[in-house]
Design goal:
8 helices, about 230 residues, mainly alpha, flat
C-alpha cells in the first residue's frame, strides 16, 4: 500500500487536481505510475493498485461509515441494513471474480500459489458476505417501530421543542381558577372536567431501550471478521 504525504501549503497551482497555490493537499506515488493528488485524505482503496483490495477496502469502509452515521442518527435501521447488504454484494462479487480468474488459469497452474490464493479469497469473501447479510437481517429485526409508529415519531420530531411547555406547563391563571371554583355544578354541565397536567403529558420515548437496540445493531456490524489475504 502506498504512503500518503500531507503538504500544508502548495508552492504552485495544480489545476488538473483542483489545487491552488497555498492550499493544503495530499500526494502519494506507486512504484509504477506517476504521483496522485487529493485535497482530502485518501481512502485506503486509493492507496492500492490491487483491484481486489480496492473493492474490499471500500466495502469494509462503507460498513464503518454506515455504523458511524447510524450512531449519529443520520440514517435509520433500514438504511443501515441496506448499507450492509450493498457491502455484501460487493464482497460476494469479489469472491466470484477470484473463482473466475482461477478457473481461467491452465489446469497445471490452478494448484499453484496464485491459484491457491484465489481459491482462499473466494472462500473468505463468501464467508464475509454471509456475515454481512446475517448482520443486516439482525439489524432489521431490531427495528423498534412499524411504519405508522415511524411516521408518528417523525411528526413528533418536527414539533417545536417548546410545544409541550406551551400546552401543559403554563403558569396557572388564578382568576380563571377562582372562576371555576365559583361556578355551580349546573353551570358546568356539559363542560369537560379539568384534567391534571400529568395525564396530558406526552409519553416519553423509551430512550434507553432504543439506545440498547442501536448499540446491538452496531455490534453486529462491528463484529464482522474481515479476514482475507
Amino acid at each position: 500500500m502506498a504512503r500518503a504525504h500531507f503538504v500544508k501549503r502548495a508552492n504552485k497551482n495544480y489545476p488538473a487536481h483542483g489545487i491552488k497555490k497555498g492550499e493544503s493537499y495530499y500526494w502519494w506515488k506507486f512504484r509504477y505510475g506517476g504521483k496522485r493528488f487529493s485535497k482530502t485524505p485518501p481512502r485506503r482503496s486509493q492507496l492500492t493498485q490491487s483491484e481486489f483490495y480496492s473493492q474490499m477496502y471500500d466495502a469494509e469502509d462503507q460498513v464503518a461509515d454506515a455504523a458511524s452515521d447510524f450512531r449519529n442518527g443520520k440514517i435509520d435501521f433500514e438504511d443501515f441494513a441496506s448499507a450492509l447488504d450493498d457491502a455484501a454484494s460487493t464482497v460476494r462479487q469479489c469472491g466470484e471474480d477470484c473463482e473466475e480468474k482461477r478457473g481461467n488459469m491452465p489446469d497445471a497452474l490452478q494448484d499453484s500459489d496464485t491459484g491457491q490464493m484465489l481459491e482462499n479469497r473466494a472462500e473468505q469473501c463468501g464467508t464475509i458476505a454471509d456475515e454481512l447479510e446475517s448482520a443486516a437481517s439482525e439489524i432489521r429485526n431490531l427495528d423498534p417501530g412499524t411504519d405508522e409508529e415511524k411516521e408518528e415519531a417523525e411528526a413528533q420530531k418536527r414539533m417545536p421543542k417548546n410545544e409541550p411547555e406551551k400546552r401543559y406547563n403554563r403558569a396557572p391563571n388564578m382568576a380563571s381558577l377562582w372562576a371555576q371554583v365559583m361556578v355551580t355544578p349546573q353551570d358546568r354541565k356539559g363542560d369537560p372536567l379539568p384534567v391534571e397536567p400529568a395525564e396530558l403529558e406526552p409519553e416519553a420515548p423509551a430512550e434507553d431501550e432504543v439506545s440498547e437496540d442501536m448499540e446491538e445493531a452496531i455490534s453486529h456490524a462491528e463484529g464482522i471478521s474481515w479476514d482475507y489475504e
